[in-house]
Amino acid sequence: MLTVADIMTPNATTIASGATVADAIELMQQRQIRSLLVEHRSQDMPFGMVTERDIVYTVVTRGHDPKKVLVQDIMHQPCISLAPDLTIQEASQVLSDISVQRAPVVQDGRLVGVISVTDIFMRGMSVPALSR
Q1: What are phi and psi of 45, to 5 degrees?
Q2: pTM above 0.90, yes or no
Q3: Architecture of domain 4-123
Q4: Sheet of 102-107: strands edge to edge?
Q5: Is 5 in a helix, a strand, or coil?
Q6: Are 82 and 103 in contact (CB under 8 A)?
Q7: How far apart are the two ends of the chain, measured CA to CA in Å?
Q8: What distance in Å separates the CA atoms of residue 129 and residue 132, rounded to the nearest whole number?
Q9: Cα–Cα distance between 45 and 59 in angstroms, integer?
């Protein structure tokens, strides 16, 4: 049975909570990604998450200057984290229950990757070949 570790994206891209939204936009564009994990300030704090939707709906739509808004002001925290040994079905259920699209994968307090519903859809679902 597939686990989170089998399909997660390793080496998740992170950003400091004190970075500006302009920094986040630039990093997301460079890496061609739709979200960033926000580094926690200490080991006992959870990770945060900032997405392109957060930026568009909270900054752009309201006319705020991305160079003056900090990531910590718009991020989601705490964000749920998943263990790498969870099955894909268990991970899907957790993401569904809390209505989120992605989550950091954490093992022993250390970030090991990120998993999204797109990962589950694209890599976690096996469909048998259709016979003709």
Answers
A1: -95, 150
A2: no
A3: Roll (3.10)
A4: 9-10, 110-116, 102-107
A5: helix
A6: yes
A7: 28
A8: 9
A9: 25
DSSP E strand stretches across the chain: 9-10, 14-15, 35-38, 48-51, 102-107, 110-116
CA-angle at 126, arms to 123 and 130, nearest 5°: 135
Residue 110 tokens read as 């250390």
What's phi and psi for 106, nearest 5 deg?
-125, 135
pLDDT tens digits for 11-69? 889 999 999 999 999 999 999 999 999 987 666 677 889 999 999 999 999 999 999 99
Residue 115: name the closest of 127, 89, 128, 66 by CA.
Answer: 89
Task: Show the tokens assigned to 94.
Answer: 């957790």
Q: Smallest Cα–Cα separation from 74: which of 6, 17, 112? A: 17
pLDDT tens readout for residues 89-115: 999 999 999 988 899 999 988 889 999
